Amino acid sequence: MKARLSKILNQSVAARTTCLVLVVITVILLTAGLWQMNYVRNIVITEVNRQAGRSMTGAIKVIDNRLSNVETAVNTAASYAHMFAPHETLCRPLMERLIEANEDIAAVTLLYEANYFEHNDRYFAPTIYRTAKDTFEEDEIGGPENDFCYLETDSNWIYTNKLDKGYWCLPYIDSMSTKRAMVTYSVPLHDETGHTYAVLCADVSLDWVQNLVDKAKPYDYSTVFVVGRDSQYICHPNTDWVQSINVIDQARQQHDSTFLEMTRKMLSWQDGTDTVDMSGQLQNESNRQDFSSSIVYYAPVDRVQWSICFTLPEDKILEGPNRLRTYMLLLLAILVVAISLSLYYIIRSQLWPLSLLSEKTKEISRGNFDVELPVFDSKDEISHLRDSFDDMQHSIAKYIAQLQQTTASKASIESELRVASDIQMSMLPKIFPPYPDRNDIDIYGELTPAKSVGGDLFDFYIRDEKLFFCIGDVSGKGVPASLVMAVTRAQFRTVSAHEAAPDRIITTINDAMADGNDSNMFVTLLVGSLDLPTGRMRYCNAGHDAPLLVSFDQTAHVETLPCDSNIPVGVMPDWRFSVQEVMIKPQTTIFLFTDGLSEAENNRHELFGMDRILNQANSIQASYCCAPHAVIDQMRLAVQSFVDGAEQSDDLTMLAIQYTKKQLDVRYQNQITLPNDVQTVPQLNAFVDEVCEAVGFDMSTTMKLNLAIEEAVVNVMNYAYPAGVKGDVYIAAQANDERLKFVISDNGTAFDPTAKSEVDTTLSAEERSIGGLGIHLIRQIMDTINYERIDGKNVLTLRKKFTNKLSL
């Protein structure tokens, strides 16, 4: 059934249009109906809230007034009690006047302290109480259980002797006289010295409270509860629960957190409204089923710290709105059926010509361009569509004939361009991260050509603990630019393999490309050499966009790398290119890019520009911490959002290099200075032995290190200074937790031993060129070797890793 309905909707415009219009109408009607029902519901709830509030206020006011009258009567009697109470014969007239003066008082008791009257028993407590026939009888309830000198709990009605004013006790069941639910208001009586000799107690029956709140109910279907400060029910529809059920314990036993929270609010004397499940607080199963979810209104009687609550079942309150909702939904269903049938037949009758035209166009789509289209008498849009299909029928036949001729030649060209693109992209680094075993460098780059092949390039590799990198942009696009790009990249690799100075690398490339440059093509190129152990970077810029340095310390810090104005490569031979130098701090990312980023255009021919590049770099999130992949991803997404689908006009290349070297604490260091005299080699050997012993190298490793350091130092002694010139060789040793480092420096003539080509040890001694074995030996023994010319000094750094963590 579902598949059939889907097929009808997919194949019939009339059915699909009917469904869409029907959905819109249904949504409109349903929205209007729901709004109306919600409006009525809110009106009903507002009126119920108003009525409940009025009833609650009225009940509290009546209770407070009646209890206030009792307080007034008792306090008045207490004010002149000193004339009657100290006399055994006059105390009864005092109590009679009090009980007669207020009909809410069910009993009056004068509780004397022990042995107050000598000829009476130890305990004396005369009582006058009101009978069911509204007559008065006397009683005497004195006994040890009423010795107010020893009773101190709030649950007893004679706690008042501990106070200096009147006190309403907790409700209780009077078992000594009236045998009814009571609450007592007590006032202490003091003699001239301030000593409490008796307590005047007025008992008030709680029967009138139940009658009052029942009459105050806002609706017949609502129920009423009254809870005292001891969490006991004072009034309840189930009279067996009065003074026998603790409302807090009841809520806990029923695991009802909502009702428990509401009772806690009530017992903290708050007023408010809550919706709770009241099934556990009602008397029978039918009530629990019908009125389980109720709106509860509660407010305190501050004078006695009671809380009154009215409960109104939601089903009863919303009975009218729910009935209205049912009728409206039924009416909506009838309207939807009627409207859907009417719409379907009207739309179907209007669209039948379109069905005929559809059948004919199917024949055309199968290649039968001679089929005759139907003719319609009307001049509406369908007739115009038929004429358009007729014109298209003849145009397609002509176009297919032309397309068959051009497809073959185009396919050949596209195949060759795909091969050229694959060859070009294979020349660029494509494995990232390129050095997963290193913890001092992280690199990511990508190139997006504007055409099948492009003229941008980037490349990098590590030699002798230096990262050599370049980025360039060839003038022009397409196949010619891709050829120049391939030549430039090959020359970068060839020249930098034996040359470490970026300016000399670019100079060599420039001279080679400027010679015979009949096409007048040039390359903007930036070449850099980053010394990984120290972070010292030397670079030479030949007309390229200046890179950015992005670091992060809580927020991104971005600065443009200063670049001298040099002409592009290939424009003029013998140009003197300048070299620049900067120290790269750990966790800093060098972001290089071509003008395909800064000059990216949108459909309004606006440029992405350097301002947007800087803003994006500054907005890098802390979680990225300037990671190369994250920097390039953010730039790419920003450019894509900016151009908004506009055709790419230039190759886009980005390269991000993050210097991640961790600065470890130096755990050991030592140094020695020797003259350039090979006779001091024994001192050098003793120094190396001392260092190796301090860092824990074994004898075999120590011998190898001695051999490597001796070879390097003797090489400096022999060749750094001219013959007959005295000079010094400085050897410093440092160790951290990971490796031992020897730094050999001198003030002699510039000489880079690492520039010497690798020795091919597979050749015989006669076949090999002279020299190079010493540096070959050093490379075999040491883990890394690095040469730098710093401030007029030759600095050769040799490193050896520890097999275990250094422990000093």
Q: CATH topology of the largest domain, what is it called? A: Phosphatase 2c, domain 1
Biggest beta-sheet profile: 7 strands, antiparallel
Beta-strand percent range: 15-25%
Strand elements, count: 27
Given helix and strand content, the structural type is: alpha+beta
Low-confidence region ranges: 150-156, 283-291
Domain count, please report it: 4
Look at the structure and name the CATH superfamily of the largest domain: PPM-type phosphatase domain
Offer a concise description of the structure.
By secondary structure, the protein is of the alpha+beta class.
How does this model look, in words?
By secondary structure, this protein is α+β, with helices and mostly antiparallel strands. The protein folds into 4 domains: 80-208, PAS domain (Beta-Lactamase, 2-Layer Sandwich), CATH 3.30.450.20; 219-317, Beta-Lactamase; 427-659, PPM-type phosphatase domain (Phosphatase 2c, domain 1, 4-Layer Sandwich), CATH 3.60.40.10; 668-801, Histidine kinase-like ATPase, C-terminal domain (Heat Shock Protein 90), CATH 3.30.565. It contains 18 helices and 27 strands. Strands 1, 2, 3, 4, 5, 6 and 7 form a 7-stranded antiparallel sheet that branches. A 5-stranded antiparallel sheet has the order 9-8-12-11-10, sandwiched between helices. Strand 2 and strand 3 form a beta hairpin. The protein is flat, with a radius of gyration of 51 Å. The two termini are 82 Å apart.
